[in-house]
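Predict structure. Chain length: 202.
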Amino acid sequence: MRRWTVMTMAAAAAALWVASGAAQAQPVYKWVDENGKTHYGSQPPPAKQDAEPLKLHGNNGSTSSSSSSSSSSGKGGAGARAQQEYNPDGTKKIPKEVAEFGEALKESLGKVDGKQVPLNCAAAVDNIRHQADQMLEVGQKNVRDGYMKQADFDKTAPKIREARGKYSVSDCQASSGNKKSFYQCMSSSYNHVTGCDKQFKH
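Prediction complete.
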């Protein structure tokens, strides 16, 4: 079985998600714990209810919250476009604050929710396919917006499509060992394929 962890698009999805201005399924919060360590998550811990959804700068100069978005004025948008920087390969550079958030979100996606849910093959397969489709959509959007080269997308997209096609309800029902644990992990909508695959190699 082709591993999700070998997919460069899956690893970069978090940063590209944010850079593209793609809507998040849930708000994303940032908070600092008692040890001074910064955390990101879809829900703040009970003790940090003062945490607020992050506001992110999209590639069109607009500022968008992870739960809502608003357009900036034409003047602000033009200024943001004028300041756009490019990589040596001609792709747009991801703004520093967005790249830092993307790295933190990528790390968060690699973790599995501590609350275990019962195996639900239909939900697991739906979650896997939905997340694979999101990776492809984000990749295509970032090609259009100039954050990714078409050649890089064309190299990685077939791997995601191949992996997506190898998971099914019947395969889940016949699975055992780590593969079954992977499906159980993916039965939770709080988990991501990169985290479940990392914990339950199969």
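Summary: Residues 121-145 form the longest helix (25 residues).
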